[in-house]
Amino acid sequence: MPELPEVQALVDFLAERIVGLAVTGVELGSFSVLKTFDPPPQALTGAPVDAVSRHGKFVDIDCDGIHLVFHLARAGWLRWSDAMPTTMLRPGKSPIALRARFSDASGFDLTEAGTKKRLAAYLVRDPRDVPGIASLGPDPMADEFTREAFGTLLSGRRAQIKGLLRDQGFIAGIGNAYSDEILHVAKMSPFAMAASLDDEAVDRLYAALRETLAAAVATASGKPAKELKDAKRAGMRVHGRTGETCPVCGDIVREVSFADSSLQYCATCQTGGKPLADRRMSRLLK
């Protein structure tokens, strides 16, 4: 799933190419991808692109006051073309969910692999009309997201820190991969309780969060859309690296599996050398 660094890179990529152009068409390859009905896709035709921005993991293209907002979900992606095919998109005939065309003949397709179709697009006059945006927590890269603000968010939270970092209503933009990375940098167990963290631990976690995301944003910046997935994988220290060597201590990267996801961690760096039990089998160690 694209997370904050990759989504920011997509925003920058699109902004460089489409701001100032006009939309010449929006075509649906899947009627279910569009979650709104007013305004209709035809309302974008001829509208100039004024800005491209990010809300958590949502991309927001402002077309003269009408916003094309999309969330790529777990298996979605954006495929850019400097010269789009001239043939119209036929619904249900390809993995393409939505196609957008612009006045210099360029455009992009939103695609989604697999059978679980979760990619979502919205046409709204105010981005806050998108339910997922309206409920977002603070952006962790914003200037106002200070150590003090982070500490206030954590205060009294009787929840495991891994789950909180992934909770979009708590902090916007972090998913499974970067939460693993942040916790590895912070040398913290994924299952530490937020309310139990002392000031030093909160300092360490805040610094790890900001530094990890900033480094990932810098790495992704300027890369073409088609290279972002590979760049993300290459930059991971522990996420997706079960059985490999921890780059910090040389221990083996371990995994805890859930019904539809997994997390990776280093026992030496994060849990005092104690492996975490698989939740499916027994209680997790802290």
UniProtKB/TrEMBL annotation:
<keyword id="KW-0378">Hydrolase</keyword>
<keyword id="KW-0862">Zinc</keyword>
<dbReference type="InterPro" id="IPR010663">
    <property type="entry name" value="Znf_FPG/IleRS"/>
</dbReference>
<keyword id="KW-0227">DNA damage</keyword>
<feature type="domain" description="Formamidopyrimidine-DNA glycosylase catalytic">
    <location>
        <begin position="2"/>
        <end position="109"/>
    </location>
</feature>
<comment type="similarity">
    <text>Belongs to the FPG family.</text>
</comment>
<dbReference type="GO" id="GO:0140078">
    <property type="term" value="F:class I DNA-(apurinic or apyrimidinic site) endonuclease activity"/>
</dbReference>
<keyword id="KW-0326">Glycosidase</keyword>
<protein>
    <submittedName>
        <fullName>Formamidopyrimidine-DNA glycosylase</fullName>
        <ecNumber>3.2.2.23</ecNumber>
        <ecNumber>4.2.99.18</ecNumber>
    </submittedName>
</protein>
<dbReference type="GO" id="GO:0003684">
    <property type="term" value="F:damaged DNA binding"/>
</dbReference>
<dbReference type="InterPro" id="IPR015886">
    <property type="entry name" value="H2TH_FPG"/>
</dbReference>
<keyword id="KW-0511">Multifunctional enzyme</keyword>
<keyword id="KW-0456">Lyase</keyword>
<keyword id="KW-0238">DNA-binding</keyword>
<dbReference type="InterPro" id="IPR012319">
    <property type="entry name" value="FPG_cat"/>
</dbReference>
<dbReference type="GO" id="GO:0006284">
    <property type="term" value="P:base-excision repair"/>
</dbReference>
<dbReference type="Pfam" id="PF01149">
    <property type="entry name" value="Fapy_DNA_glyco"/>
</dbReference>
<dbReference type="GO" id="GO:0034039">
    <property type="term" value="F:8-oxo-7,8-dihydroguanine DNA N-glycosylase activity"/>
</dbReference>
<keyword id="KW-0234">DNA repair</keyword>
<dbReference type="Pfam" id="PF06831">
    <property type="entry name" value="H2TH"/>
</dbReference>
<dbReference type="InterPro" id="IPR035937">
    <property type="entry name" value="FPG_N"/>
</dbReference>
<dbReference type="InterPro" id="IPR000214">
    <property type="entry name" value="Znf_DNA_glyclase/AP_lyase"/>
</dbReference>
<dbReference type="InterPro" id="IPR010979">
    <property type="entry name" value="Ribosomal_uS13-like_H2TH"/>
</dbReference>
<dbReference type="GO" id="GO:0008270">
    <property type="term" value="F:zinc ion binding"/>
</dbReference>
<keyword id="KW-0479">Metal-binding</keyword>
<feature type="domain" description="FPG-type">
    <location>
        <begin position="237"/>
        <end position="271"/>
    </location>
</feature>
<keyword id="KW-0863">Zinc-finger</keyword>
<dbReference type="Pfam" id="PF06827">
    <property type="entry name" value="zf-FPG_IleRS"/>
</dbReference>
